[in-house]
Each structure stands twice: as structure tokens, then as C-alpha cells.
Amino acid sequence: MAAPWATLNPDNRVDQLPQPFRTINKILEDVLQAVGEQIGEIDRRRKSAEYEHGLLQAMPSKVVAVAGSVTCSHAEARGMPRIAIGTSHGEVCIVDTTKQEVIAQKHALGDGEAVHCIALSSEGVYAPRPPPPGQEVAPHLGRPNMKLFVAGRATPRIWVFNVCKGTFGSDLKPACTIHVPEPPPAQAEGDAEAQPRPPAVQQLHVRGTNDGIWVVALMFDRTLRAYLCPLGPPEDAGGATSEGTVLDQAILEDEEEGEGEEGKGDAEDFARTPQVKTPVYCFSLQSMAPMPGLPEPGLDSLVLTAFSVRVEGGPIALGTAAKQVPLICMVSSPESSIVLGYSFTAPDPLAAPAGLDAEALLKQRMPAVGELKDPEESRSLKPRRRWALPARTTAVAASPDGCLFAAGGSAGSLALIDTALGPSLKAMLPGHYAELTAMTFHRSLVLVSAGADGWIHHYNLQTNTLMVRYLCSPPPTPAPVTGLVSAQTLPLAMSLDGAGGLRLLDLRRHRKMANALWCQGPGGADAPGEGAESEVAGV
Are 458 and 450 contacting, i.e. CB atoms less than 8 angstroms apart? Predict the structure, then answer.
């Protein structure tokens, strides 16, 4: 069979170059292509430099060195200038951002146990008490000590410390012990599918309330446990001077400080503190699968957000003080479009039991200031609201006063939920063209959101409108924003992108203000590069 005909244009027919000219021509083409790629890269860098030309450079004003690596951190709510840090060596420290120094430090966990969860709270208030017999005015109770909550990876306990004034700063003294269920032991090492033992407390949130502090813990078995931590005696009680020297207790000769006896002494001190064993609420999370038959989101992907509605400048409703409002807990996950809303009722005010006559009432002893009695049994709770959003919930944020809750989806949608009146859906804001990755509130006036495409949006919450949008990192391939945090006293925010870049945002002029540079630490560690697990915490 004859070969098929091939149509050729004689004018386009070019004879191949003979060797070695053919090889030389190929080498020249490769060199020219590489030069063109380098020129394009130089042009992209020049355009990126011109995009942020004139942007101020902000250097760190203080470097705090800690033992080991930072495993968790927590900034105190409502814009207080304190940050709590937990390390992989079981050490905890409190940093005062105003003084730019560590004001309290302690080895809280022993045997090399790492700190898994940490929280800080100074919001608790004492319940009003009647005046003593023969007096018309009740005595001033003062304020309770700040509390530090620490949970490790192995011990099924939540250790509560009092942050007290000391001679050379602040001291961490045992205040309370909260007992949590112990996870099941790990499987045998010979098993090919052996799973390590999970931490008992997966997430920890604390909020002050009337005569106590709510401690909400997400457990290893997908249950939520809400404990009430007692406030303890007031800050100035116990006969202590301003330097923290106890005057009404004898100093024993064998009470000498030693590095090796610190953990043992803390264990003995915690044994003498109040033991909280029964939670006020204990319940399993409802299904978060969008449809029956779909898998549940993993435990590691659950996001717990706890806050209280506290309107500034007055009560929420007639006869309802701000300290008596319930605690609201939102549960979401990047693997699900379901958002669950729970409401924990505030503790009842101090009152006498019903049905007692005057003689029996006078014989009863009034509980001491700062004491709480464990409930006889835990109460179950069902979600107050259950929202099914258009897409997976990838970013959430709550306003400082707790009146607003924002939820962003994987398709760029942004829902604003009013938690003070409902809770109910308030508005759907103009979203992003990509997945939302981070959000933060500046008071209740401005909402700042960021997307995977590198764009940052500023929203006016009084009119629910988009004010401005801009790229956080330089084009043409901006790094996605992975974290946002805002200050509450100043109109400032800070963003963290996937390449490890920090930028300071001006929320008054609605623009980028400065490029915050990482500095080399004492150990020679450079800034985290692309793909590093980093987060930004602010006050």
C-alpha cells in the first residue's frame, strides 16, 4: 500500500542546519529563554518593590526568649495588655505588653509535659452581698485576683493559678484544681494503626461571670464541659501588704525554695486548694454534618468561640446587669457549613432557699466571699440556634462586647450574626472572591477580613457596607493572609501572610501603615518561612 500524501508549502520548507551548528543554535535558544525568565523575575520584583515603596519599616521593640518552643498563647479579652504563653517544656509566663517584660513565670507542669492550652482572665466579679447586722452599707469587697488556667498534654487536670503581686513582680500561686475525664490509654506499640493518647482538653476558653469564672473545655470525646471556677478571696484579703508579704502566717524553717522541689511543692499546694469535679453543663455536640450520611468533621478541625454579651455604657435590658448575662458558645468547623450556638445561663444571685422561716435562716452560715459549691449533677444543653451557611465555615470572629459574631465561608461569603438580640442573622456583607482565612473586630465599629487571594476588606458595621479593599502582600502572586488581630484601644491591626510577612494596618485611614520585620533571635533563629505554622496574638 502506498504511503499517504503529505501537503507541504515549498516556501516554508527549511533545511536543518548541519552539525555542529544545530547544537549551537539549540544552546543559544536555551540561553535566551533563561535570560527572558530572569528578566521577567526582575521585573516582577521591581513591581513588587514599587507597590510597597515608601511603606515604613517597623522593627521589634523587645525580644522575649523562652525555654523550648511556644505551644500556645492567649491574649486577655477586652484589650488588656497581657499575654499568656505556654511552652513545650511545661513553662508558662505572662508578658505585659505595656512594660515590655515578663511579669510572671513558672514551671507549671512536671516530667517534661508540654502545655497544650492556656487562658487568662480577670473579668470575674463578686456578687453583691447584704450588709452585716447593725450596718446599713455593705463592705467593699474589692476585686478578685487575675487567674491563669493551664492544661497539659498528659495530666487530666486544669491547673488554676492566682496572679498575685510579689516583691519582684508577680507570683503564680495555686488557686484551684479542675478535674476532667482521663482519655483512654494508647494502643499497644505492636499495632500497626496505633494512635497516640490524645490530650484530655482539646480547647480551653474562660470568661468571667457573676461570682465565678466560666471554664469551657472541648474534650477528647467531643463533649463540652462548662465548669464554674471560684474567685477566691479578694486581692487585698489575707493580711498581705502591697508587696505580697503574708503577715498572719508563720514562716517555717523547712520552707526553702529549691529548684528540684518546685513541682512537688505545687502538687501539695494544689491538694489544699478547692477541687472542682462536677461541671455545671456537660453534653455531647450535636451532629455537624450538612446532610445525613455525610461524615462528621474531625475533632482537630472544630473551632470553639466563647464570649459574653457586655454592652458598654449600661445594661442590656431593664434590671439585667452586664455581669448577669449568659455565656454564648459558638461551634464551627472548616469541614462543615453548620454553626451551632449554645447559651450558658449565668449563676443565680446569692439568695436564701425558699420555705425557710426567720429562725432557720438566721442559723444558716453565709458562704464566704469567693467560695462556690459544686453542683450535685451536671445539666445537659441543646443548641439554641443551628445555622446552615452556604459554604464551609473557614473563619470566625466575635466582637469585644460580644454583640456581633462573624462567620466567613470557603466561597467568600460573610455572615454577620447579632448575638445580643436573638441570636439572629443580621446581614450578609459583600464577601471575597476567594476563601476567607481570617477576621477580627476593632471594637464594634470596624470588621477586618482577609481572603486566600491576599485581599483585605474593611467593613463599617454601623452601615454594614464595605469601605475599602486592598492587597496585603505585593502582586503578582500575593501570599494568602493566614492571621489577623486588632487592638481595641488604638485603631491598629496586624496581618500575617503565608510567607511570614507581618504588616501593620491603619484602621482610621484604612490603609497599610508599616511592614513589621522579623529580627533574628538570640539563638540565631530566623523568621519563619513559607509553610511555617505561625499565628499572631494581640491585645
Answer: no
Name the maximum alpha-carbon separation found in the chain: 125
Give the burial class of 348: count Cβ atoms within 10 A of its Cβ; 0-12 exposed, 13-18 middle, 19 or more buried. exposed
Alpha helices in 438-512 (DSSP H): none
The neighbouring-strand residues paired with 94 are: 84, 104
Single-letter amino acid, residue 339:
V
3-class DSSP string for 342-373:
EEECCCCCCCCCCCCCHHHHHHCCCCCCCCCC
pLDDT of residue 282: 95
C-alpha span between 119 and 216 (Å, rounded): 11
What pLDDT is recorded for position 68?
Answer: 85
Phi, psi of 438 (to 5 degrees): -160, 150
Q: How confident is the model at residue 59 (pLDDT cuts 50, 70, 90)?
A: confident
At 201-213, the pLDDT tens digits run 999 999 988 888 9
- Grid coordinates representing 384 are 439554641
Contact indicator for 22, 16 with CB cutoff of 8 Å: yes
Start-to-end C-alpha separation, the chain: 85
Contacts of 224 (CB under 8 A, 6+ apart): 216, 217, 218, 281, 282, 283, 284, 285, 304, 329, 331, 342, 381
How far is it, in rounded angstroms, from Cα 459 to Cα 446? Answer: 6
Residue with cell 500497626: 192
pLDDT digit string (tens) for 265-279? 567 788 889 999 999
Helix (H) / strand (E) containing 524: none
DSSP-assigned beta bridge partners for residue 228: 214
The Cα 21–Cα 418 span in angstroms is 75
- CA gap 88, 260 in Å, rounded: 19
Above 70 in pLDDT, residue 522?
no
**CA 172 – CA 244 distance, rounded (Å):** 12
SS3 content of the chain, % helix, strand, coil (to 5): 10, 35, 55
Which residues in 210-335 belong to E strands, given as ranges?
A: 212-219, 223-229, 275-276, 281-284, 303-308, 327-332
Give the pLDDT score at 248: 38
Cis peptide before 423 (omega within 30 of 0): yes
pLDDT in tens, 470-509: 988 887 778 889 999 998 888 999 999 888 889 999 999 9
Identity at 116, one-letter amino acid code: H
